[in-house]
């Protein structure tokens, strides 16, 4: 919060934020799980359609990974300086104004996490049907979303164990797929060495457009900042977790795409969505599709778990700060935001039942990107505005590091406005609708603020 925030005694609900039981390893697992979803298994087909060069495609993932790492390094400085749960809600409130932070929190608390959870849950149902024909994707999606919510309602310790184990299994399966591809896949007549044509590919419009979707696949590198209030020794653990998770995912993404290119003909992947299944058949034969489908199902469980854990922490923090939202700050004895979790799963259920999650994601993508842009810009703003601020971690490579991230996300926002003006404006409208709620919350006396 801003330095002028009230220091009145916290309410009985506030101590939950001081229960720091989450280890650095769990914070890393949370971010890795949040990043690795279905994007890496679905986007390559559209990339090779216009960029038929293995070197250029891998550079696409390396450039996207470098931009994500620049964002992670910038967030590490903010999270170490302001180690409170809430992510962008916390950062933008502290850097700019409580109203700006509220808008970021509003989009996250309403659909920013609920829509991706619903999409991942439905994807789980679709892939599970491929493994077990005859299953209902909708019922499976609802079941996995509710079951994971119950796990998180049972306590932070159970949440941490479940997240660690499910993420470890996911990473092991991806590494296993990479090794199997190199060992059993039939090498394709491609070269990973740069050629004279690669520069033209890497400066082309298709490369720039593909970068938008690559960055979307990397989204989630900031996951640990949303539970900062629960992490032990956050000044040290948060920067380590954010940076380590990003580096792990960059390595896995580049290696996985290299294996897809190494084992599967480009013409078989061009323009196709289910790249994981296509590559699986080329590596493992006819049963390969089911093997990769099962792998993706298991991986989606950890992704759903990560987002289920993160989202309610934003809502809970907003409830502590704003009396109008106070019921959402209710927690269990060990700090689980029970009301916020139940509200989130209710929204997820509505989105699944109405099949509206993809439309919602389209609408909020610009707003979510804008929040990250403002947070990283805040590193520069704070260096100028508060040079004496205690910074346990300072962004490596400053000021180049934040400028790289700002350049990439600035281009993404330009592209989103140019290509999807109605969706982008609708997302801003949803975000700005939070101003009305903020105004109402300010009309009531503030009883607690951390």
From TrEMBL:
Transmembrane segments: 21-46, 58-78, 99-126, 138-156, 168-185, 205-229, 241-262, 291-310, 339-357, 363-384, 396-416, 422-440
InterPro entries: AA/rel_permease1, AminoAcid_Transporter
GO molecular function: L-amino acid transmembrane transporter activity
Keyword Acetylation: no
Membrane-protein topology: Multi-pass membrane protein
Keywords: Membrane, Transmembrane, Transmembrane helix
Name of this protein: Amino acid permease-associated region
Lineage: superkingdom: Bacteria
Keyword Transmembrane in annotation: yes
GO cellular component term, pick one: membrane
Lineage: Bacteria, Pseudomonadati, Pseudomonadota, Alphaproteobacteria, Hyphomicrobiales
Coiled coil: none
UniProt-annotated location(s): Membrane
């Amino acid at each position: 919060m801003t330095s002028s925030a009230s220091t009145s005694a916290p309410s009985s609900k506030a101590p939950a934020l001081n229960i720091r039981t989450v280890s650095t390893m769990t914070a890393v697992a949370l971010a890795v799980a949040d990043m690795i979803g279905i994007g890496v298994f679905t986007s390559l087909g559209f990339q090779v359609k216009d960029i038929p060069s293995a070197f250029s495609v891998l550079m696409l993932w390396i450039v996207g990974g470098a931009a994500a790492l620049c964002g992670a390094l910038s967030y590490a400085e903010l999270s170490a300086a302001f180690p409170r749960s809430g992510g962008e809600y916390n950062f933008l409130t502290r850097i700019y104004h409580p109203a700006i932070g509220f808008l970021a929190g509003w989009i996250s608390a309403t659909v920013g996490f609920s829509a991706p959870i619903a999409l991942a849950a439905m994807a789980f149902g679709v892939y599970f049907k491929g493994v077990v024909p005859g299953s209902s994707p909708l019922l499976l999606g609802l079941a996995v979303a509710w079951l994971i919510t119950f796990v998180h309602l049972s306590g932070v310790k159970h949440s941490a164990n479940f997240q660690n184990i499910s993420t470890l299994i996911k990473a092991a399966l991806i590494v296993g797929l990479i090794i199997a591809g190199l060992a059993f896949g039939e090498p394709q007549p491609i070269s990973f060495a740069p050629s004279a044509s690669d520069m033209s590919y890497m400066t082309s419009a298709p490369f720039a457009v593909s970068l938008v979707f690559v960055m979307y696949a990397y989204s989630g590198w900031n996951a640990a900042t949303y539970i900062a209030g629960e992490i032990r020794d956050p000044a040290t653990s948060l920067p380590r977790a954010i940076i380590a998770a990003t580096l792990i995912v960059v390595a896995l993404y580049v290696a996985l795409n290299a294996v897809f290119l190494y084992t599967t003909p480009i013409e078989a992947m061009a323009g196709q969505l289910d790249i994981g299944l296509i590559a699986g058949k080329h590596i493992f034969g006819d049963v390969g599709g089911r093997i990769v489908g099962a792998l993706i199902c298991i991986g989606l469980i950890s992704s759903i778990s990560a987002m289920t854990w993160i989202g309610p922490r934003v809502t809970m923090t907003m409830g502590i700060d704003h009396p109008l939202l106070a019921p959402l700050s209710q927690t269990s004895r060990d700090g689980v935001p029970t009301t916020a979790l139940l509200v989130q799963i209710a929204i997820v259920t509505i989105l699944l039942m109405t099949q509206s999650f993809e439309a919602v994601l389209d609408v909020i993508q610009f707003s979510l990107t804008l929040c990250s842009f403002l947070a990283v810009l805040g590193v520069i703003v704070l260096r100028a505005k508060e040079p004496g601020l205690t910074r346990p971690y300072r962004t490596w490579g400053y000021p180049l590091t934040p400028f790289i991230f700002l350049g990439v996300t600035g281009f993404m926002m330009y592209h989103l406005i140019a290509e999807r003006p109605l969706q982008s404006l609708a997302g801003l409208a949803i975000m700005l609708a939070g101003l009305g709620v903020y105004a109402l919350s300010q009309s009531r006396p503030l009883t607690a603020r951390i």
